[in-house]
């Protein structure tokens, strides 16, 4: 099973979580993410890092395509990176 790490800016994450049913598997996946800080130029950026398997990444992709397309780019990049590695 492929391991996927989705990195998502906090505003995108917040918007996506707001569109999720709180009883859904997708919501649980998103809520297990960790906020990380990393250097970006002269400041730090805060990113949400979501670790999951490919099945869960596919679930997030399908949900985002229906309710929050703004999250698709980050999910697609993570899936492609997992397949390449």
Summarize the structure in words:
The chain has helices spanning 10-18, 25-31, 54-67, 72-84, and strands at residues 3-9, 34-40, 43-53. The chain has one domain. A hairpin with a 2-residue loop joins β2 and β3. It has a three-stranded antiparallel β-sheet. The protein has 85 residues and is an alpha+beta fold. It is built from four helices and three strands; from the N terminus they run βααββαα. Helix content is 51%, strand content 29%.
How would you summarize this macromolecular structure in one to three sentences?
This protein has 85 residues and is α+β, with helices and mostly antiparallel strands. The chain has helices at 10-18, 25-31, 54-67, 72-84, and strands at residues 3-9, 34-40, 43-53.
Strand neighbour order, sheet with most strands: 1-3-2
What percent of residues are in strands? Answer: 25-35%
**Uncertain regions: pLDDT < 50 for 5+ in a row?**
none
**Helices and strands, in N-to-C order?**
EHHEEHH
- End-to-end Cα distance, whole Å, is 13 Å
Q: Over all CA atoms, what is the radius of gyration?
A: 12 Å
- The pLDDT mean sits at 95
Q: Could you say which overall geometry the principal axes of the C-alpha atoms support?
A: globular
| Total DSSP E strands | 3
Please, how many domains?
A: 1
Report the sheet with the most strands, covering strand number, pairing sense and barrel closure.
3 strands, antiparallel
Number of helices: 4
Q: What's the helical proportion of residues?
A: 40-55%
Structural class category: alpha+beta
């Amino acid at each position: 099973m492929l391991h996927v790490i989705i990195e998502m800016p906090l505003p995108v994450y917040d918007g996506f979580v707001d569109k999720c049913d709180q009883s859904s598997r997708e919501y649980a996946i998103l809520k297990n993410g960790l906020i990380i800080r990393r250097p970006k130029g002269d400041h730090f950026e805060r990113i949400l890092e979501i670790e999951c398997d490919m099945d869960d990444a596919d679930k997030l992709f399908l949900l985002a395509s229906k309710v929050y397309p703004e999250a698709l780019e980050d999910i697609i990049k993570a899936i492609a990176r997992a397949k390449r590695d």
